[in-house]
Specification:
Blueprint (H helix, E strand, L loop, with lengths): L7 H50 L1 H5 L3 H9 L7 E8 L4 E6 L15 E4 L3 E10 L2 E11 L1 H53 L13 H83 L6 H32 L4 E4 L1 H16 L4 E5 L5 E4 H17 L7 E10 L2 E8 L31 H11 L4 E6 L3 E7 L5 H8 L1
Parallel strand pairs: 7-9
Antiparallel strand pairs: 1-2, 1-5, 3-4, 4-5, 6-8, 9-10, 10-12, 11-12
Enzyme class: transferase
Pfam families: CHASE8, HAMP, HATPase_c, HisKA
InterPro entries: BphY/WalK/GraS-like, CHASE8, HAMP_dom, HATPase_C_sf, HATPase_dom, His_kinase_dom, HisK_dim/P_dom, HisK_dim/P_sf
């Protein structure tokens, strides 16, 4: 009824009008209820009095069995325009004489009922005994409509409507004049606040028009504007200093960023050069070691052969480390060629390749539905190769390697995962998991260089995604990763 955003003028007007309306409605309702009850009581008394008169006049007609006289007595009721029916019953309860107004077509009761008068929905009616001395000669039946009551109520309703209309008009005129004294200072204060808000000019001041509570509010508002103006001046001075400091800071950040980029490029170039230059000596060591093993095996004793085998094994591992380091350094310079890639096909091919490498070892690899990805095919394939080969490598000590590959959607992101039943790892060493040359198992337990997961993390980071893992020692591990781009076919799979 009174909405929160309704202007205060309209609210005051509505409050006054609604209050006046509620008072008038309650008054009129009480008046109508009182008139209805009192008029009904007076009508019943008048009908009862009329019945007594007619009953007294009808005693002679009943005593001498003169229906004509009884009809004449009843016909006198024509003067009472609200009497619609009247009847005289003899002592045996038979209708002796009756009167019926032309507008009444309802039949008379076959026998008289209990004495007394009552009020029904559309009429007053009842029965009056006709007695002579101590002897009951018969019964008088009277029926009157409620027209008189409704005519009176209609008249009162018309008067009430006029009173309500005049009262509302008077209340409207009075409220319109009185509310100006309340709302004008408030509206002036509102206009000042709006001017300050729109122009951000805190030098504006509200004019004090009254000395009541609104005047106190005006003084407080002006004091607040003064404080804000003073604080703004101080803030502007501080802002100028902050802007100058930020500019110097941004310049230093830009310089440091440029230095870091140059350092990264130099580091990548150094890593590539070192790795590339080390490959030739390592190959020479491995090659000469093979020559010693194959051509001079008969000359060397068992200890010498063991040492040569150690040289070959470590030179091979060193070569693998150099190759992985080269691959890792190339990722920093590689530009991604992203397009719609079938992850399902990539994983299926890699799994078949790994099965052929593993030979007859019992494997159970389950591949769920894998939506397409918007990614670089070459690097994404490298991710899956590393993850699948790791899952099979770290579960080779089990009777059967069980690997599950799938995907799911969470918080609007598509997440791929690979789960194995292998050796797992202790989560307290999780921060070392994706580091370069960081290993959570010894070389004797599982071969490797410790670069594979670092490469996987770097590839996924270049795709704008992230990778994480969950594991328990000797209970397996699960690796999850996301990619920033999702193909249209992946979207369709998720929606279905």
């Amino acid at each position: 009824m009174l909405r929160r955003n309704t202007p205060i003028q309209q609210k005051l007007m509505k409050v006054i009008m609604l209050t006046s309306g509620a008072v008038l409605l309650l008054t009129c309702s009480s008046f109508f209820a009182y008139e209805f009850v009192t008029f009904r009581q007076s009508s019943m008394r008048e009908l009862s009095t009329l019945g007594e008169i007619i009953a007294t006049n009808s005693t002679a007609a009943l005593a001498f069995d003169d229906s004509t006289a009884a009809n004449e007595i009843l016909s006198a009721l024509k003067a009472e325009r609200h009497i619609v029916a009247a009847g005289v019953y003899d002592a045996d309860g038979k209708l002796f004489s009756y009167y019926r107004a032309s507008r009444n077509q309802t039949p008379f009761p076959t026998v008289p009922e209990a004495d007394g008068y009552q009020f029904a929905a559309a009429y007053f009616g009842g029965y009056q005994p006709i007695v002579q001395g101590d002897k009951r000669l018969g019964t008088l039946y009277l029926k009157s409509d409620t027209g008189a009551m409704y005519e009176r109520l209609k008249l009162y309703g018309t008067i009430a409507l006029l009173v309500v209309a005049l009262s509302f008009l008077l209340a409207y005129l009075l409220s319109r004049n009185l509310q100006h004294g309340i709302t004008t200072p408030i509206l002036a204060l509102t206009e000042t606040a709006k001017a300050v808000s729109d122009r951000h000019d805190y030098s504006v001041r509200a004019v004090k028009q009254v000395d009541n509570e609104v005047g106190v509010l005006t003084d407080a508002f002006n004091h607040m504007l003064t404080r804000i103006q003073e604080q703004n001046l101080a803030l502007n001075e501080s802002s100028a200093k902050i802007v100058a400091f930020n500019q110097r800071l941004e310049q230093r950040v830009a310089e440091r960023t440029a230095e870091l980029e140059a350092s990264n490029k130099e580091l990548e170039s150094f890593s590539y050069s070192v790795s590339h230059d080390l490959r030739a000596p390592i190959r020479s060591i491995h090659g000469y070691g093979n020559i010693l093993k194959e051509e001079y095996a008969s000359v060397f004793d068992a200890e010498a052969l063991r040492l040569i085998q150690t040289i070959l094994r470590n030179s091979k591992r060193m070569g693998q480390l150099i190759d992985d380091l080269l691959a890792f350094s190339r990722l920093g310079r590689k530009e991604l060629m992203r397009f719609d890639v079938s992850v399902q096909d990539i994983v299926q091919i890699i799994v078949e390749e790994q099965k052929s490498i593993e030979g007859d070892r019992p494997l159970e690899i389950k591949i769920e539905k894998l939506p397409n990805a918007f990614a670089d095919l070459t690097t994404l394939r490298q991710v899956w190769i590393n993850l699948v080969s790791n899952a099979l490598k770290y579960s080779r000590d089990r009777e059967r390697s069980i690997v599950e590959i799938g995907s799911f959607e969470k918080d609007g992101a598509l997440i791929y995962y690979i789960k194995d039943n292998g050796a797992g790892f202790d989560m307290k060493y999780y921060d070392k998991l994706f580091g370069v040359f960081q290993r959570l198992h010894s070389q004797k337990e599982f071969e490797g260089t410790g670069v594979g997961l670092a490469i996987v993390q770097r590839i996924i980071a270049k795709h704008g995604g992230k990778i994480w893992a969950e594991a328990k020692l000797n209970e397996g591990a699960t690796f999850y990763f996301t990619l920033s781009g999702m193909s249209s076919s992946a979207v369709a799979v998720n929606e279905n």
